[in-house]
Write a structure and sequence with these properties.
The complex is a heterodimer of chains A (about 190) and B (about 450). With about 190 residues, chain A is mostly beta strands. Chain A is built from 1 helix and 8 strands. Chain B is mainly beta. The relative contact order of chain B is 0.11. The N terminus of chain B is likely disordered. Classes of the chains: A mainly beta (about 190), B mainly beta (about 450). At the A-B interface, β7 and β8 of A face α2, β1 and β11 of B.
């Protein structure tokens, strides 16, 4: 809920900053990037790609996906809006986006044998993904260049299994699930294509 | 930002124009922008949390006083078998434990039509033995003796208090001397916490019962009073007029010269943990543990002493024996540690140095029984296996009775009473190669 509100506030704040003169609508672009994710549970990384479409000058929509290794490997698929905060070549922009987070755990993450009393293997269900932050274009030549971004990203997913629970002097089996919500400081370096 | 256009009409008033210019000047300064970014980072850092919402089930104990519990030890009308444990035979009756609740009395004088005739309520009962017309059972931490001359109207004779203190529940649920845990209430709960905190030892679900498997053994008894026949999973064993019980690491001796009033005699430390079963034979006690079999000399009835041992890999291991050999099943999986499933045949002609004769691979062996040259082995999902054990180094499989998850068996007088997942089967082995299920008491899941 907090993230939804934050997204709406962010979009409301950046909307008045639209450039007024002319539009370069219809331009396609792409980027791939590497991210450093710093959260409460540690530091990890993300590899991602995005495809963008200029809606009008300074405003673009991007469709992205990534391999996010924080805690458990997942594949976020998201839609993101970028709003330039100036129309200089090297400029700040605000971004906000959200989508789905698909779980794709590594073999040693999949709970095999690491959970005491586990009867069935762990199954995973995806959740939501969102991110928000500020970026800056570091330089652009013939449409290529680098972008650095910093913000907050959030992902959620659920792991479930059946476990053996002691009931006095017998076992009984009961379901157990963990729904994770992981917020990270997200620093990304992207190369624009 | 310098080229940022703003509707000019909004700047008409001097105040609005002043505010706009101030904001613009502020945002165009690098130091201000850096400060805002850092402030944003600090704000964001408060959102850097790994949170987990856990949904799980645990069981909460229900405590009652011992006085209340003891007052419930009595006969009752027969009830359906739902959670069978160990069994014991005396006369034409099977005494079948309903774990933690009591004992079913089943008349199998006609094996083709066994009848569940009574239920003896004994809260906390997981073990038993029958000597003459008296039943001995555990009632949580106490030993109770009952006159079962008429199984439909038993008479409680005596309690020996506090002799099974190992009936404990882990993780802080330790009943004091006046209370027992009689029930477990299921609680489904949702807990929100920081991810990575883990449950560890503070997990209210983690309960362990260290003395869950008990069994009864059979032995000769004094003239005029006969002892019954127990299964190999027993922790209670009768030898002459002594009742021996094993717990995690000790052996207790009770004098039952007066069958109605067992007298606690002594506790012998076994200097060994993981003790699970006892099988009395002649004047020997064969103890099974998760790491080996131990042989005790009970010539001095009140002071058994260790003669020898046979160690094996970690597994659950009930044991039966005859004059020359001991037969030990090793089972892994579930609460049993290790990764082996087999039957070991051990030469015990030298009791001080038993030797392995041969190992037979099995599926998931549990209880076993011997009648003459016939060896009966409960082999988990494979069912009951009947072997010709005339040559222990060359067991010959005569018949497999397919039963689900067989647990324990007593072979006596041409009927093998076998506890399986779906019921208690009465197997006629008059002709072992053509053994068949003559009768059955069904287990009903409550």
């Amino acid at each position: 809920m907090r993230h939804t509100l934050a997204l709406l506030v962010a979009l409301g704040l950046v909307a008045p900053a639209w450039a007024q003169r002319g539009f370069d609508a219809g331009k396609l672009n792409g980027a791939f990037g590497i991210s450093l994710l710093n959260g409460e549970g540690g530091v990890n990384g993300r590899l991602g790609v995005e495809a963008g479409y200029e809606l009008r000058r300074g405003l673009s929509a991007h469709l992205g996906t990534a391999l996010d290794y924080y805690h458990t490997r997942t594949v976020p698929v998201y839609l993101e809006i970028h709003q330039a905060l100036s129309d200089k070549p090297r400029r700040f922009f605000a971004y906000a986006g959200g989508g789905l987070n698909l779980a794709w755990p590594l073999e040693d993450e999949a709970g095999s044998g690491r959970i005491w009393g586990m009867v069935t293997p762990v199954t995973y269900r995806g959740g939501l993904y969102s991110q928000i932050g500020i970026g800056r274009t570091l330089g652009r030549q013939a449409g290529r260049g680098f972008v650095i971004r910093m913000g907050h990203s959030f992902k959620s997913f659920t792991e479930s299994y059946t476990e053996r629970v002691w009931q006095g002097n017998t076992w009984t089996e009961a379901p157990r699930s963990h729904r994770y919500g992981l917020g990270r400081l997200d620093i990304t370096l992207q190369y624009l294509l | 930002m310098r080229n940022f256009a703003f509707p000019e009409a909004a700047l008409a008033s001097p105040q609005a124009s002043y505010v706009y210019q101030s904001c613009r000047d502020m945002l165009t300064r690098p130091s201000i922008r850096t400060g805002l970014l850092l402030a944003g980072t600090v704000f964001l850092s408060s959102c850097l949390k790994d949170q987990v919402t856990e949904r799980y089930t645990f069981f909460r104990p229900v405590y009652r006083t011992k006085a209340e519990v003891r007052s419930e030890a009595r006969s009752a009308a027969p009830v359906a078998v739902s959670n069978p444990g160990k069994l014991f035979i005396k006369g034409g009756y099977v005494f079948l434990n309903e774990v933690d609740r009591g004992i079913h009395v089943i008349d199998f004088s006609q094996p083709t039509a066994p009848k569940n005739i009574a239920f003896i309520k004994i809260p906390g009962c997981v073990d038993m033995a029958v000597r003459g017309n008296h039943l001995y059972a555990d009632c949580y931490t106490d030993l109770v003796s009952m006159d079962i001359t008429d199984p439909r109207q038993v008479v409680v004779k005596h309690f020996v208090e506090g002799v099974f203190p190992h009936r404990r529940f882990g993780n802080g649920f330790v009943a004091d001397t006046n209370l027992v845990i009689t029930e477990w209430k299921r609680v489904d709960t949702v807990v929100r916490s920081r991810a990575g905190a883990g449950m560890g030892w503070g997990d209210p679900r983690e309960l362990s019962f260290s003395d869950m498997r008990a069994a009864t053994g059979s032995a000769m008894s004094s003239p005029g009073v006969t002892n019954g026949v127990g299964g190999s999973m027993a922790r209670f064993g009768l030898l002459d007029d002594r009742l021996y019980t094993v717990s995690w690491s000790d052996l207790k001796v009770f004098n039952t010269a007066d069958p109605s009033k067992p007298v606690y005699t002594r506790t012998i430390s076994l200097n060994q943990g993981d003790i699970e079963t006892i099988f009395p034979y002649r004047n020997r006690l064969f103890l099974g543990s998760q790491t080996g079999m131990f042989i005790y000399d009970a010539s001095n009835k009140d002071n058994p002493t260790r003669l020898g041992q046979f160690t094996h890999a970690r597994a659950c291991d009930p044991v039966v024996a005859d004059d020359t050999h001991a037969f030990v099943t090793l089972r892994s999986g579930g609460p049993c540690a290790g990764n082996i499933n087999q039957l070991d045949v051990i030469d015990v002609t030298s009791l001080t140095s038993p030797k392995l004769v041969k190992t037979y691979p099995m599926k998931g062996p549990a209880g076993l029984s011997k009648d003459g040259n016939l060896l009966f082995v409960c082999d988990g999902s494979d069912g009951l296996k009947i072997y010709d054990a005339a040559r222990p180094d060359n067991l010959v499989l005569l018949k497999t009775i397919p039963l689900a998850d067989t647990y324990d068996v007593i072979a006596w007088n041409r009927i093998a009473l076998t506890v399986a997942k779906d019921g208690i089967h009465f197997i006629d082995y008059t002709n072992p190669q053509q053994a068949f299920v003559a009768g059955k008491i069904v287990i009903s899941k409550s």
